[in-house]
Amino acid sequence: MGRKSQLKKEIKTCQKTIVEIERRRARSQSALVQAILLQEEPSEDDVEWFNKYTGEITACRNHMTELRKELASL
Fold it and tell me: Which among 11, 9, 1 is positioned nearest to 62, based on CA atoms?
């Protein structure tokens, strides 16, 4: 029973982390969209931050998927 509650807690932590990272990514995402709409070259910094945050979100989602699989198998 202890392992199930630990997995549920880790899953909630991942969900909160994803929301936080998505909030940070939104700033660079909006800057990229604005550059596209204005037909300008996006800032290298905005592109780097967007890619960094997207990678972190993907890694966290993959980890959460593994946790859910483990929880389902218990």
Answer: 11
